[in-house]
Amino acid sequence: MALDAPKSRVLVTGGSGQVGGELIHELAELGEVYAPGRSELDLADADSIRKVMREFKPQWVVNAGAHTAVDKAESEPELAFAINATAPEVLAAEAKETGAVILHFSTDYVFDGSKPTPYIETDATGPLSVYGTSKLAGEQALAASGVPYLVFRTSWVYGATGKNFLLSILRFAREREHLRIVGDQHGAPTWSLDLARMSAHIIAGRQQFAATNQCSFAEAVAPVSGIYHAGGSGETTWFGFAEKGIAELRALEPDAKLATVEAIPTSEYPTAAKRPVNSRLDGTKLKQAFDWRMMDWQESVSRVVASLKR
Q1: At CA 159, angle to CA 154 and CA 162, rounded to 5?
Q2: Which range of residues forms the domain containing residue 148?
Q3: Does 57 reside within a domain?
Q4: Is the pLDDT score of 3 beyond 50?
Q5: Cβ atoms within 10 Å, residue 237
Q6: Which residues of 10-19 are buried (b: 16+ CB within 10 A; e: fewer)?
Q7: How many domains does the chain have?
Q8: What is the pLDDT of residues 258-299, one digit of tens each?
Q9: Fewest CB within 10 angstroms: 46, 99, 124, 219, which?
Q10: Are strands 236-237 and 186-187 parallel, antiparallel or unpaired?
Q11: What DSSP string runs through 103-172?
Q12: Is residue 215 classed as helix, strand or coil in its secondary structure?
């Protein structure tokens, strides 16, 4: 008979964000979840991080907070690096003192997009933007820390709340007659709720492992510590993503007047930050290590759009 997995103290950063908000709910059954607001925990302020870590003494740190304004990061690299690189380093240093484990979300933008097939975890990185470079630095800080950690690289994150591509497209589809969307960048949308459920599944599994083997959470994570790809299953383009979202909305509202969609090349939609043309992530390692396969992007889009109509 399996022993009951022990309850734990979980610190969630970025609790007001898309993934963070879902994490607060999904992790609740695992123990005490603390998701301080920015006034309590400012990821750009190392002293703020240290104060929270020392007062709460978490056993798990789920770092969903990040500077995710990709284009804006080009003009404020210091802030991007403070949040995306220095904050994970400080979190890890504090975790090392108390035996805590770090779960951290990273990005497909650590790659340059030149590979013709989906990226695996050991592929060479080569970020094209400040955002991608700062997120890679965060990964490297965790790897160098000596703390058991799990980095989940994900892509094109969206959900039913917050600011994201899908919600913007659905709004524009109601307001405009025609939309021109980039059709030559390839990747997969990832549902924020799926990421939160994955995190809860993995933490619960490691806690059960710790109970069965009478070891600490850090000892339970050490054998699987490292980087995993956790993007939505399947692949599409930003154009395909938009087209699918609008099609789902049209099915729910057949009488609504919605915009038509046209695919355009990246060259016709210049941005401050350069994006990889291939953001596809191979999730084989995640499935093998934790028996978790990320949801197919088309299914998740259908579910999210349907949820917006309730």
Answers
A1: 105
A2: 8-159+190-233+275-296
A3: yes
A4: no
A5: 18
A6: bbbbbbebbb
A7: 1
A8: 999 999 999 999 899 999 999 999 999 999 999 999 999 999
A9: 124
A10: antiparallel
A11: EEEEEGGGS-S--SS-B-TTSPP---SHHHHHHHHHHHHHHHH-S-EEEEEE-SEE-SSSS-HHHHHHHH
A12: coil
- DSSP, collapsed to helix, strand or coil, labels residue 270 as coil
| Residue type present at position 146 | G
pLDDT of residue 2: 42
- Residue 17: strand, helix, or coil: coil
Kindly state whether residue 82 falls inside one of the protein's structural domains: yes
Q: Look at residue 239 and tell me if it is in a domain.
A: no
User: What mean pLDDT value characterizes the chain?
Assistant: 94
Instruction: Pick the closest to residue 153 from 109, 91, 184 (CA basis).
Output: 109
Which helix (H) or strand (E) covers residue 184, if one does? none
Please tell me the predicted confidence (pLDDT) of residue 6: 57
Residues known to be catalytic: 131
Beta carbons of 171 and 259 less than 8 angstroms apart: no
Distance CA 64, CA 43 (A): 11
Structure tokens at 309: 């109509």
pTM > 0.90: yes or no: yes
Long-range contacts of 114-118 (CB under 8 A, 24+ apart): 114/276, 114/277, 114/278, 115/278, 116/278, 117/280, 117/282, 118/235, 118/280, 118/281, 118/282
CATH number where 87 lies = 3.40.50.720
Residue 251 inside a domain? The answer is no
